[in-house]
Amino acid sequence: MYDAEKRKLLSALSHGAIFLSTTFISIGLPIFVLFVSNDPVVKENAKEAINFHFNVWFYGAIIGVLVWLSFGLLVPLAFLGFLLHWGLTIWALFHVLTDAEKPFRYPFIFRLV
Question: At what angle do helices 40-69 and 25-36 cross, to 10 degrees?
Answer without folding.
Answer: 160
